[in-house]
Amino acid sequence: MAELQGLGAQLSEAERAGVEIVAVSPDPNERSQKLAEGLRLGFRFLADRDLAVARRYGLVHAGGGPDGQDVPRPATVVLDRDGVVRWFSISRNFQVRPDPDDVLRAVRAL
Predict the structure, then answer these.
(1) Is 9 exposed, middle or buried (0-12, 13-18, 19+ CB in 10 A)?
(2) Where are the domains of the chain?
(3) Whole-structure pTM value
(4) Cα–Cα distance list, 15 to 42, 73, 93 (Å)
(5) Which CATH architecture has domain 2-105?
(6) pLDDT cut 90: percent of the chain above it
(7) 38: burial class by Cβ within 10 Å (0-12, 13-18, 19+)?
(8) What are the distances in angstroms from CA 67 to CA 62, 63, 83, 86?
(9) Average confidence (pLDDT) over 68-74
(10) Tens digit of pLDDT for each residue in 11-22?
């Protein structure tokens, strides 16, 4: 959760410049909204309950969940206005996220 707060704080500058931040989560919208409100996050969440978005981008850890279910791999993607991936970070550990400063540098490079 701290990584979401850190990323949101660092990217508020980018948002003011027109960058849109969207978090994709397998959680229901209600849960994500509650999290966003509790952490005072200013960006939107997209519910990916069936992992369709994660599958499309090859971000599914098959059988990686606690009960053997498929789960999304943690990833941070920076896209340009044309939808071209300009920076990408993926982790095998759901607790490991990129440094928000690295993401901000990628955004500034757009």
Answers:
(1) middle
(2) 2-105
(3) 0.71
(4) 9, 25, 27
(5) 3-Layer(aba) Sandwich (3.40)
(6) 20
(7) exposed
(8) 11, 8, 34, 34
(9) 92
(10) 666 666 677 778
Q: Which tens digit of pLDDT belongs to each residue from 10-62?
A: 666 666 667 777 888 898 888 888 887 887 777 778 899 999 999 998 999 99
Both structure tokens of 36 = 């966003």
Q: Measured on CA atoms in the order 88, 96, 48, 55, is the torsion positive or negative?
A: positive
Q: Please check whether residue 73 is in contact with residue 61, taking contact to mean a CB–CB distance below 8 angstroms.
A: yes
3-state helix, strand, coil in the chain (%, to 5): 35, 20, 45
78 DSSP β-pair partners: 87
**Which residue matches tokens 């994709």?**
24
Report how far residue 62's alpha carbon sits from residue 77's, in angstroms, rounded to the nearest whole number.
20
